[in-house]
């Protein structure tokens, strides 16, 4: 994948393809700051997917935007954001099978209107307006 603006340093090897998704309702700034001779900073809108190349040891800083400032809300190793591309499919082992979730039994428990199991529906507090 070509990064036309601010390409990753050409003398380095081992870059990986990464993907970050802004799952919040706020604008975020994604920044990699621990790679020498490389400046990477992008605005990520709510629901947007950011795909970029980086090194596995690089840290993606996520700054969440407020009115006139941004707060550092997360630091994610780029190795955890790695996605498989065509060149990876031939040389890597298949992904492990996901563990199966334990089955829950519903012992005739009543459900609320959102599908949440209520342990005792009469002990729930009610919101009323006067």
Q: In words, what does this structure look like?
A:
5% of the residues lie in helices and 28% in strands. With 130 residues, the chain is mostly beta strands. A hairpin with a 4-residue loop joins strand 5 and strand 6. The longest helix has 6 residues, at 86-91.
Which stretches of 5+ consecutive residues score pLDDT under 50? none
Mean pLDDT: 75
Could you tell me how far the N terminus lies from the C terminus, measured between alpha carbons in angstroms?
A: 61 Å
- How helix-rich are the residues, as a percent range? under 10%
State the strand order across the main sheet.
3-2-5-6
- Number of helical segments with 4 or more residues: 1
Q: Over the alpha carbons, how many angstroms does the gyration radius reach?
A: 22 Å
Beta strand %: 25-35%
Overall 3D form: globular
Give the class from helix and strand content and strand pairing: mainly beta
| SSE string, helices as H and strands as E | EEEEEEH
| Main sheet overview | 4 strands, antiparallel
Q: Count of DSSP E strands? A: 6
Blueprint of the fold:
Elements: E1 16-21, E2 28-32, E3 40-44, E4 49-54, E5 59-65, E6 70-77, H1 86-91
Antiparallel strand pairs: 1-4, 2-3, 2-5, 5-6
Compose a concise summary of this entry.
The protein is mostly beta strands. It has one helix at residues 86-91, and strands at residues 16-21, 28-32, 40-44, 49-54, 59-65, 70-77. The strands form 2 sheets. Strands 3-2-5-6 form a 4-stranded antiparallel β-sheet, with no helix packed on it. It has a two-stranded antiparallel sheet with strand order 1-4.
